[in-house]
TrEMBL record:
It is a multi-pass membrane protein. It is found in: Cell membrane. This is D-methionine transport system permease protein. InterPro entries: AA_ABC_Transporter_Permease, MetI-like, MetI-like_sf. Keywords: Cell membrane, Membrane, Transmembrane, Transmembrane helix, Transport. It holds the Pfam family BPD_transp_1. The keyword Cell membrane applies. GO terms for cellular component: plasma membrane. CDD domains: TM_PBP2 (cd06261).
Amino acid sequence: MEFSRLIEILPELNTAFFQTLYMVGVALLVAIVIGLPLGIILYVTDKGFFLENKLVKSVAGVITNLVRSIPFIILLVFLLPLTNSLLGTTIGPTAAAVPLSVAAIPFFARIVESAAREIDKGVIEAAISVGASPWMIIKDIILPEIKPGIISGLTITTISLIGFSAMAGTIGGGGIGDLAIRYGYYRYDDLVMYTTVIVLIVMVQVIQYTGDFIAKTVNKR
């Protein structure tokens, strides 16, 4: 009976799985495009660094901390008007990708900043002494040095986004979380609930293992 029920929900589970991948993928792309430069800015504009700028550092830091301090479930509701104005709807994977992206940007930016702080300042000072431009320092020293940290940060961010995407199911965001709530919770379907939990666990384990492997591979230290 349970096996036949599992076969029955397989199409919906498959759809929910790819919806989750889509939401997380979009948010991760936005995190890389915006969060990576933001993390570098937070690092290089700090006191004592080659692009020191107290105003930029303060504004970027406050905005980053402000967004990070809001629980994701509240952020979901708070950004509903923005999502609606951008997409004309607040339901579905694309709509859920908006708050996921907003949450991912500061999260990943702080990870990038922390990774950059592990760089030996002497290396940067040596580059400055030979006349390297700020862009050259960022491109040829900072980014290559923090590559393992970036990969690890992307792994952590991806896993966090999977958890956040499950929460997005509470407002009709689609994905595995939505499936678990509609069938597992509202209809008391334990099989669906257990299946979605197993799928999420497998996803997280695969991503963690892959991320750790890539980070070790690119780490030349």
